[in-house]
Amino acid sequence: MARSEMSSGQAAHAALIEALRAGVFAPGDRLREEDVAQRLSLSRTPVREALRRMEAEGLVTHRPRLGAVVRQLTHAEVVELYEMRLVLERTAAEMAAKHGTAAEFDTLEALNGDIAAERSQPARAAAINQSFHRGLYHAARNRFLVQSAAALNNALILLGPTTFAEGPRVDEVVAEHAAIIAALRDGDQEAAGQAAAAHLQTSLRHRLRALGEAG
Questions:
Q1: Best exposed site among 12, 68, 100, 212 by fewest CB in 10 Å?
Q2: Could you report the per-residue pLDDT of 2-39, keeping only the tens digit for each?
Q3: So where are the chain's domains?
């Protein structure tokens, strides 16, 4: 749906979601209607509607004397989220090895190269990384798998800042992606699934370390 076709509340919700993805607001941040409206150039009424919707979606909580706050995932929730991602991405890689095309694998390789080129811009590299993983899911040729992955999108927003700012993290990700791509090109479903699972395990370790340092 085009932004012009959305209601004001839907437009405010879309703008807030994008702001969360971009790191404008982070887990734990207070979302005062007036401040959010001013920052996003919106009126307060649709912002209020958007915040209520985000509370229903589990993205926002209300705290006494603070009001709306971006929800923070607990250690257990982060582990559970990555467990689901691992299951889905292992399956996606296995299916992509079976159903994907050379053109799709070429696209994944190009995106991986773009991630490497943006190692000095962690936020940009992280955005390209999201495109890489979306491409992997689409190469799997299973709409229900894609829908299942999309259902995790809200929770992924709550992970907070990218871990790509950690030293050689981008190079590590690029190497892991390359292993996935090599298995895809070989049509080796088992190796593709194992490479995808290993990649998610490494991502979880970095995420938990960042969570521990933040605590």
A1: 212
A2: 444 467 888 899 999 888 887 788 889 999 999 999 98
A3: 3-70, 75-214
